[in-house]
Amino acid sequence: MSDDASEGRGEPSDRRFGTRSVHAGQSPDPETGAMAPPLYQTTSYVFEDADTAAELYALEGEGYIYSRIANPTVRTLEDRLASLEGGAGAVATASGMAALDSAVLVLAEAGDNVVCSTDTYGGTTAYFAKTATRREIETRFVSTLEYEAYEEAIDEDTAFVHVETIGNPSLVTPDFERVAEIAHEHGVPLVVDNTFATPALCRPLEHGADVVWESTTKWLHGSGTTVGGILVDGGSFPWGEHGYEEIAGQNHAYHDVDFSRDFPEAPFAETVRFRSLRSLGNQQSPFDAWQTLQGLESLPLRVEKHCENAEIVADYLEEHEDVAWVTYPGLDSHPTHDNASEYLSDYGGMIAFGLEGADGSDPSARGTSSRAGYEAGKVFCESVEVAQFLANIGDAKTLVIHPASTTHGQLTPEEQEEAGVTPDLVRLSVGIEDPEDILADLEQAIDTATRACREG
Ligand SMILES: Cc1ncc(COP(=O)(O)O)c(C=O)c1O
């Protein structure tokens, strides 16, 4: 696990990643001595007097007004994640999707466009293709590794460029620095979804990204009990120079405040707070933030074990005669193994693979695999016993899903293909159980799926 993340807000520079996972953003409660972060399960905060109240509303004082805008427990999570990502500030949201929606609200308006790589989570693709369009924001999808395509797609109405650190579920890692350079040459920020890597493996802000967002629902929390999201502001994009009026300039939606002037360290994050959280209610609940803080304490340890187990499982699948193909960024055979080696400190806990299906006659049939591979993927998911068949990733438990019939089922076959979702693809989120038990479970589920498809 890499130790050298740059320091975050208010953190001594000599504290390393593991230490900051446990301590950043928090110290024992000065009044009670409580060591764990207190859960401030409150909607509002009593004002000291009328002048203080007026100052808080005018954003001229430090303090809390209402938990739709900010809450001390949520703030601890925000500060910790800003520190872990090496950002200048952060805002927690109700879900990963709420984080994306918040970024779009602040960065784009009707008539603008977004340039997004195709190796992207199905929910994000659907959001851009079917929801952002309701606000007349167009998305131009470009093949993730075709860098000229980004260049061609960007024009004067482009609001931002979007990529994922490790694409869901293709596990493709782009050359961030190259994409960032292209975006910056055109005066637009690079926004990165770092959900699959987490800051334990990659900090995109160190590679040219301007904004990072994540679903905290996955590895950051780690136990599958809360849904949440985070947006981290790198703090260095020159918003004013490039005409981002919500962030730099008098914001008529909030008392004519100029966020870049009043919050120079993290103006994007604070604009999100006062525009998206305040006006759309995209905030994270204190209880969810409190739970995620517990999970974050063990993030580096868990991620290390996820990676260790995933490597064992990838090697096992690669050798298995009933497995047609395996994708894992740590395998030399992965098309972006080199980018992953450059940008990640390890290769993560996600694997995708396809089963031979009915007759096993075409082991190179990735992408062309027939109905048999599709059916085999479904039966495999129904047959696991240690692993769980469900729609999440990043839990301590091993999780499986068949994207073509579920998460990506609403995309057209062409869109599925562009997103790297072949009909037979099984997505595996490798947990932290004992690897022998994971392998035994996979063995019996592969056997059941292969036999069922060959017989029927
Ligand atoms: C890569 C990625 N980004 C974003 C999301 C959305 O996060 P949430 O479910 O917390 O809204 C997901 C959900 O699976 C995801 O896999």
From TrEMBL:
A molecular-function term among this protein's GO annotations: pyridoxal phosphate binding
Gene Ontology terms: biological process: cysteine biosynthetic process from serine; L-homocysteine biosynthetic process; transsulfuration
KW Transferase (keyword) present: yes
Gene Ontology cellular component terms for the protein in this record: cytoplasm
Stretches for region Disordered: 1-36
Cofactor: pyridoxal 5'-phosphate
Protein family membership: Belongs to the trans-sulfuration enzymes family.
UniProt protein name: O-acetyl-L-homoserine sulfhydrolase
Species annotation: Natronococcus pandeyae
